[in-house]
Structure to design on (438 residues):
């Protein structure tokens, strides 16, 4: 098994642990799964990423959330939007040159926009579906903003960790 | 190249839809909260989608409906004498009556339903009866803010306590799923002879409907398995022409149910 695959599994397990133990406030939901999907190899096509996202979501719901389908329903659109967001954030040349993502090469500002967009997609769907019409729009908006800030902040070190190999190539 | 790209987008779209549907189905089955939410969204969509169709259909029946409404109005005026506001809720004894309009109703299924244009904001609660000037229509099952969803008498899941006018016999009536204008009165004692033409009304023994709401008129009867008699009932309500209804809520329902529960516990 490749080092990157082991890191991916360990980070996924850490996400599950975080969901299980970080329950201090209903206003903040911390997620870095969208950033993990973003940092998958650029060559991964949409179908492959969506299937992976669906399975990761199911596993997460089975092990932590208890509501099967909740994470999948939010994570699959993230996977579907991944390549489009990569084009917007990192430019078309990433695919044209067959490059991998790298903090050294692309710079943090592009990563910030990519992570922000994907995390926002995830949180929008997750918070809306999770609330099931019970919470007010104000509560959901606050939860979205706080969660987006916290999740994006945490997603940066996660992305750095996942892209360590490709970063060393550009140093 | 562009063909390849188009087919790739198509495959992605199909996989996306399939995965989202799978997630939605899982969610629907896994959580009651999401189940209710999805159901509500479905009812609201149906109401919006089919409400306009029903309105269009009713346009073509305006003349007949007008005549019917005038007659109904006269009957109600006569019955009420002193009444509350005509289009608002009215309380009478332990029942509250709220007029409503049918937004959508199915008539050709085994499990038929009805969607009304009044919801929780109008004081409608689940487990309330639905009646019209012709008789019993159904029972409210779920309530949204502005709409409510009910099962009609044309649904085998609904059974109503009924009483025969002449013989005072009490039994349950339910739809047999065959004809839109017929239901079956079940569990009558086999030795009781039920004459055709007897009026069937609500017994008032359930918490859903007040007593003496008309349901239909008896037809042929037969003995089933030598132990019970069942009687065909031709319903007064013509579901194909139903447009305006009244929702009946038993204001003492929770009190009665609490008493029932206490009685069950004591046993």
């Amino acid at each position: 098994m490749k080092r990157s695959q082991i890191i991916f599994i360990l980070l996924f397990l850490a996400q599950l642990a975080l969901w299980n133990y970080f329950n201090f406030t209903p206003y903040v939901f911390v997620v870095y799964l969208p950033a993990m999907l973003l940092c998958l190899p650029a060559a991964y096509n949409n179908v492959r990423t969506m299937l992976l996202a669906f399975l990761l979501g199911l596993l997460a719901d089975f092990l932590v959330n208890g509501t099967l389908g909740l994470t999948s329903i939010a994570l699959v659109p993230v996977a579907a939007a991944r390549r489009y967001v990569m084009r917007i954030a990192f430019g078309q040349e990433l695919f044209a040159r067959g490059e991998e993502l790298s903090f050294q090469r692309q710079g943090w500002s592009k990563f910030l926009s990519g992570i922000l967009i994907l995390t926002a997609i995830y949180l929008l769907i997750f918070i809306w579906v999770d609330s099931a019409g019970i919470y007010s729009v104000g509560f959901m908006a606050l939860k979205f903003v706080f969660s987006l800030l916290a999740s994006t902040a945490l997603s940066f070190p996660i992305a750095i960790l996942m892209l360590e190999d490709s970063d060393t190539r550009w140093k | 190249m562009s063909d390849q790209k188009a087919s790739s987008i198509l495959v992605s779209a199909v996989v996306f839809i399939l995965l989202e549907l799978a997630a939605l189905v899982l969610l629907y089955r896994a959580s009651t909260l999401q189940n209710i939410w999805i159901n509500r969204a479905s009812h609201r969509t149906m109401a919006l989608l089919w409400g306009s169709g029903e309105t269009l259909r009713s346009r073509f029946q305006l003349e007949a409906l007008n005549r019917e409404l005038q007659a109904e109005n006269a009957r109600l005026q006569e019955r009420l004498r002193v009444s509350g506001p005509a289009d608002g809720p009215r309380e009478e004894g332990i029942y509250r009556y709220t007029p409503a309009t049918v937004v959508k109703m199915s008539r050709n299924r085994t499990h038929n339903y009805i969607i009304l244009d009044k919801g929780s904001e109008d004081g409608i609660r689940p487990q309330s009866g639905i009646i019209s000037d012709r008789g019993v229509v159904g029972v409210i099952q779920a309530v949204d803010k502005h709409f409510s969803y009910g099962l009609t008498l044309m649904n085998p899941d609904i059974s109503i306590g009924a009483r025969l006018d002449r013989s005072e016999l009490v039994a349950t009536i339910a739809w047999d799923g065959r004809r839109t204008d017929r239901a079956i009165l079940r569990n009558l004692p086999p030795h009781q002879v039920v004459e055709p033409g007897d009026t069937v009304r609500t017994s008032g023994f359930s918490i859903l409907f007040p007593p003496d709401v008309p349901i239909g008129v008896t037809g042929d009867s037969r003995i089933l398995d030598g132990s019970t008699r069942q009687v065909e009932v031709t319903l007064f309500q013509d579901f194909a022409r139903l447009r305006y209804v009244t929702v009946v809520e038993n204001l003492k329902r929770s009190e009665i149910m609490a008493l029932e529960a206490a009685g069950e516990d004591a046993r």
Remarks:
- The radius of gyration of chain A is 16 Å.
- DSSP finds nine helices and no strands in chain A.
